[in-house]
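To illustrate the input format used throughout this study, we show a single complete record. The first block contains the structure-token representation of the backbone; no residue identities are included at this stage. The design step must infer an amino acid for every position from geometry alone.
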């Protein structure tokens, strides 16, 4: 599995599921064009992508438009573009081909996706998280969230919102999304300090 220092943005949940077979980094979805009507989603992308983002959208017209508009909304954030090849075909779950008749990210085989990211890393080796072991030792997991009351308790949502406000994340994140986000930009010590300050 490829571990990256920055998040990858794809269009939908099926794309995310396919890409998760190749990389173990954070994968964000635009949910099609709906991202452009969601301030919270754009805020999340900007916050998690402060050090850069990778955009992997479909090679059809819709994918190109999403890529173009998204780059325009990310201001001064460094964008790394990964393009899937234009391969004719149809995804298994769909009854017919897309308008352009091309496979999307979800339809591309694992080996092709691996080669795309290998090529990206050859030119940008700094994106590879070579310190994976050290990061995992202090990873914020579900057990930590439960211990600190950030999941599984009646007021967990309110506590997560408090932390989100302090570290610049959007509010109303569920526990899974919150865990992914804080592991990218925060640490156990910072979360513990924020919670301790709130109880003083």
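Output of the design step:
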């Amino acid at each position: 599995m490829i571990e990256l220092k920055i998040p990858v943005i794809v269009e939908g949940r099926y794309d995310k599921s396919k890409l998760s077979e190749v990389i173990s980094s954070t994968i964000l979805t635009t949910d099609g064009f709906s991202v452009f009507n969601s301030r919270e989603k754009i805020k999340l992308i900007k916050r998690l992508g402060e050090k850069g983002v990778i955009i992997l959208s479909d090679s059809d017209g819709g994918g190109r438009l999403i890529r173009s508009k998204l780059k325009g909304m990310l201001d001064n954030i460094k964008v790394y573009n990964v393009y899937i090849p234009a391969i004719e075909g149809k995804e298994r779950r769909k009854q017919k081909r897309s308008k352009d008749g091309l496979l999307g990210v979800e339809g591309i085989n694992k080996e092709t996706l691996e080669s795309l990211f290998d090529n990206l890393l050859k030119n940008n080796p700094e994106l590879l998280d070579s310190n994976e072991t050290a990061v995992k030792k202090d990873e914020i997991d579900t057990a930590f969230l439960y211990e600190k009351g950030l999941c599984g308790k009646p007021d967990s949502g309110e506590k997560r919102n408090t932390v989100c406000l302090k570290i610049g994340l959007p509010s109303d994140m569920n526990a899974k999304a919150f865990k992914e986000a804080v592991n990218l930009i925060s640490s156990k010590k910072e979360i513990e300090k924020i919670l301790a300050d709130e109880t003083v």
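Structural context for interpreting the output: Residues 138-199 form one domain. The beta strands are 8-10, 27-29, 53-55, 79-81.
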